[in-house]
Write a structure and sequence with these properties.
The chain is 33% helix and 26% strand. By secondary structure, the protein is of the alpha/beta class. It folds into two domains: 119 residues, 3-Layer(aba) Sandwich (Rossmann fold); 83 residues, putative n-type atp pyrophosphatase, domain 2, CATH 3.90.1490.10. α3 crosses α4. The radius of gyration is 16 Å and the shape is globular.
Length: 222
């Protein structure tokens, strides 16, 4: 099946795309929503412009659609992006990185139903710790580019998801109810390398911004 991937550049969308390809589907295009609202309910925003770099090393066309990011109205923008992908690339389905968010899953499903598209959610209700272990096992190189919940702070930025990371977020889950995969927005990620990439992306510049328990890492890659 020819699929369009809702693509943010983070671990969830990248791993969902990887699983869809392993299942024998064709990754026909990537769809990135560039939201002007950093508090978007639907879309990942940190370093979203770097999806262009990722698309190049994946050798997959990228469709960019800009949105003001207004709650609910941003769904109209997503609908237009998916329609464009269907018209331009002939996609038959959409891949999402939804893990537990009913808010996202139901709204994307509704749009897919409207256009007669399948909606694939390869990560749906996957155990969070098992998921993180799978990322490592399958050679995904992922860094933290945003930390937005206590007790996460600036020191978490640019950390790689590895065995030590899993151990620490497991402890934070027990003590502070932090979602170990960041599903509640506790942290955001960026994929530097994975089996879908032809080569690893290298960070050429980075700058941390924030205070307390709200930090983001602005990066440049090549």
């Amino acid at each position: 099946m020819k699929l369009g991937v809702l693509f943010s550049g983070g671990k969830d969308s990248c791993y969902s795309a990887y699983l869809a390809k392993k299942q024998g589907h064709e990754l026909t295009c990537l769809i990135s929503m560039f939201s002007e609202n950093p508090e978007s309910y639907m879309f990942h925003t940190p370093n979203i412009e770097l999806t262009e770099k990722q698309a190049k090393v994946m050798n997959i066309p990228l469709l960019i659609h800009k949105t003001p990011g207004e709650k609910e109205k941003e769904l109209e923008d997503l609908e237009q992006a998916i329609k464009t992908a269907k018209d331009k690339y002939g996609i038959e389905g959409i891949v999402t990185g939804a893990l537990y968010s009913e808010y996202q899953r139901k709204r994307i499903q509704k749009i897919c139903d409207k256009f007669g598209l399948r909606c694939l959610n390869p990560l749906w209700h996957m155990n969070e710790i098992d998921y993180l272990k799978e990322l490592i096992k399958n050679k995904f190189k992922i860094i933290i580019i945003g930390a937005f919940a206590y007790p996460l702070d600036q020191t978490w930025l640019q950390r790689e998801i590895n065995d030590k990371f899993i151990q620490e977020v497991t402890e934070l889950q027990d003590e502070y109810k932090i979602h170990p995969a960041g599903e509640g927005g506790e942290f955001e990620t960026f994929v530097l390398n994975c089996p879908l990439f032809q080569r690893e992306l290298k960070i050429t510049k980075h700058e941390a911004q924030g205070k307390g328990n709200s930090w983001k890492l602005n990066i440049k890659v090549k």
